[in-house]
Amino acid sequence: MIFKPRKRNRRKAEAAAPSWWSKLSFSGWEPLFANGLRPILGMSGAFVASALILWGGATVLDRPIVKVDVGGQFARVAPIQIEEAVAPFRGAGFLSVDLAQLQASLERIPWVDRARVERHWPRSVRVTITEHVAAARWGESGLMNTRGELFIAHAHHVPPELPQLIGPEGTEEQVSKLYLDSYPRLLTVGMRLTKVELDARGAWELTLGSGVQVRLGRQNVTERLERFLRVASPLVAARGGEVGYVDLRYSNGFSVGWSAPSARVAHETPAARPEA
């Protein structure tokens, strides 16, 4: 019985001296805890858990690439060139490898027109190469593709059977456009275009497979080509071996330069003179 009063006194002392928690004030926060904060904390926890799961999955899947499969029909691109283009990407992860940069690296190879790059599960990359098709030569050693683009400025080997395009530096697109426009139209009249030349003065000249030169000058080039196709081409077809050139730099006709001097004939209006 001696200790009972002391026990009661201790309980009274504890009740009389509030703890530090009781000194904190949460006035006005009760609705937030009850209605807002708890759901937010629950959603945040779920988000963090999901992010950790995704990160873990990505880490597992993003293992280093072990193989690059190369396909496509190509003859000008050497395997060593592809190996050198792919080398900087060795050790890259399956998911983190930059496919756009790898594609750009492959398309910098001179004869590569397009490269398609895609991931191939589980740890490889598949590359499909498409080569340029040389359709014409630019100057002495340049090569142009079927779209009229100069893709090699100085080729080691230029197929001699390709038509030749010539022009001042920077006129590749302009010259190739006239070639692409004229070539199929000349074929319709049985003539093959072998050379298109634009000189420094801006004058155009075409050369046919028979060696005949078609002089179009600097003005009304499209109109003059139409005149050749409509009026002069039958003459050239009939007597191609005797024709040296056809000059269409006239307002209402053309003149013919003959290989044999005795067979010279002019098809132009009286007193007409060549224009530009």
Provide a descriptive summary of the structure in words:
- The protein has 276 residues and is α/β, with parallel strands linked by helices.
- It folds into two domains: 67-131, membrane protein fhac (Ubiquitin-like (UB roll), Roll), CATH 3.10.20.310; 134-267, Cell division protein FtsQ/DivIB (Rossmann fold, 3-Layer(aba) Sandwich).
- Helix content is 37%, strand content 24%.
- It is built from seven helices and 13 strands.
- The protein has helices at 4-16, 20-23, 30-61, 79-86, 99-107, 172-187, 221-239; strands at residues 67-71, 112-120, 124-131, 134-138, 142-145, 150-152, 164-166, 193-198, 204-208, 213-217, 243-247, 254-258, 266-267.
- The strands form two sheets. Strands 6-5-4-7-8-9-10-11-12-13 form a ten-stranded mixed sheet, covered by helices on one side.
- A hairpin with a 4-residue loop joins strand 5 (142-145) and strand 6.
- The longest helix is centred in the N-terminal third of the chain and has 32 residues, at 30-61.
- It is elongated and about 75 Å long.
- Mean pLDDT is 81; it is low at 1-7, 12-29 and 51-58.
In short:
This protein has helices at 4-16, 20-23, 30-61, 79-86, 99-107, 172-187, 221-239; strands at residues 67-71, 112-120, 124-131, 134-138, 142-145, 150-152, 164-166, 193-198, 204-208, 213-217, 243-247, 254-258, 266-267.
Strand content: 15-25%
Total discrete domains? 2
Based on CA atoms alone, the radius of gyration comes out at 41 Å
Category by helix and strand content: alpha/beta
Can you give keywords for this protein?
single chain; 276 residues; alpha/beta; Ubiquitin-like (UB roll); Rossmann fold; ten-stranded mixed sheet; three-stranded mixed sheet; 7 helices; disordered N terminus
